[in-house]
Design brief:
By secondary structure, the protein is of the alpha+beta class. The chain has two domains: about 55 residues, no CATH class; about 90 residues, Sandwich (Immunoglobulin-like), CATH 2.60.40. The protein has three helices and nine strands. Strands 5-4-8-9 form a four-stranded antiparallel beta sheet, with no helix packed on it. The chain is rod-shaped, with a radius of gyration of 40 Å. The termini are far apart.
Length: about 160
């Protein structure tokens, strides 16, 4: 009887089931399940990268600018040809941060606070007055906030 060598068939069997490759067997390495480990590492790194990108997008937005709160009573005194702006409540405003438009024209410099034309801030309880003796009665008055490079209408009155 002829003797059957199991070494060749065992080696072929191991290669077929993936336990050892010929190069790994030659050098004594076992590389089974390496692709699963590499796949897991890649998957975790992709998830971490995606989460980082989402975090940067969400938290790197500039904070919204604060538009001042303002409650103003705008009245017209046709007998004295005056417009009165009474700051009833809200935030104090800097003259540099607002424009007061009368019929669409900037008239901020024409408004006087307590008779003085060079006012710098306007706070609650204070009045600004505009004398329109030189022209006709205005039809529209707007207070525009111009801080932070953008414009927002705070108050408007139509007569």
């Amino acid at each position: 009887m002829e003797r059957i060598s199991h070494t060749n068939s065992e080696t072929e069997w191991e290669n077929l089931i993936g336990k050892k490759h010929s190069a790994a067997k030659k050098h004594g390495f076992n590389d089974a399940a390496v692709s699963e480990i590499i796949g897991s590492i890649l998957l975790v790194s992709i998830v971490v990268t995606a989460a980082s990108i989402v975090g940067v997008v969400l938290w790197s937005q500039p904070s919204p600018e604060k538009i001042p709160a303002l409650d103003v009573v705008i009245s017209e005194d046709t007998g004295n040809k005056m417009i009165h702006l009474y700051h009833d409540s809200g935030d104090s405003l800097s003259r540099a941060d607002i424009k007061i438009l009368v019929d669409g024209n900037d008239a901020t410099t024409n408004f006087k606070k307590s008779g003085l034309s060079d006012w710098s801030t306007w706070g609650a309880g204070e009045s600004l007055d505009y004398d329109f003796n030189t022209g006709s009665a205005p039809k529209k008055v707007q207070i525009i906030y111009t801080g932070f490079g953008s414009s927002s209408v705070l108050v408007a009155a139509y007569f």
